[in-house]
Amino acid sequence: MTKTAAPDKPTTVLAWLRAVGPSGSPKDMEEARAAALHEALMLQLHFPEGRVPESLDDLARIVDLEIRLVSDLPVPGIAFLRGGRWHLHISAALTLAAQLRRALHELKHVIDHPRRVNTLSAGISPAEYEELADLFADLVLNTTIKGRDP
Ligand SMILES: [Zn+2]
Fold this sequence. Notes:
Blueprint: H1 13-20, H2 29-45, H3 56-63, E1 66-70, E2 77-82, E3 85-91, H4 96-117, H5 126-142
Parallel strand pairs: 1-3
Antiparallel strand pairs: 2-3
The site of zinc ion has 4 residues, from helix 4 and helix 5.
């Protein structure tokens, strides 16, 4: 399998996040966890003053995705592609903190999407992708970039 170099610099936050990690499927969980940490730090660089957004609307603006609260969602959250654009639906039944965490979890699935569809021989199982999505959300919410504290 050959890697194709991206011809242009990423122009969206999502493209930047995807550019941080491996372009194909990570070879193992160690590589995947390292990528999740780098992606979390990259996302934090896009937060105003390094602060985690306080609302889903703020997060949606930063990552330029559609994020909607849905009151009768049978799952905590879901990410889907419609009209060439990613949409996140998050359950309104969750607390605000849980909504943000879930939106970040779903965002990680969006980041990982090309890695999952581009490879048949994935070194990462679907359950491990769930673990990575939780890890990414926790890292974004709990990891402070050194020197960014006031
Ligand atoms: Zn998930």
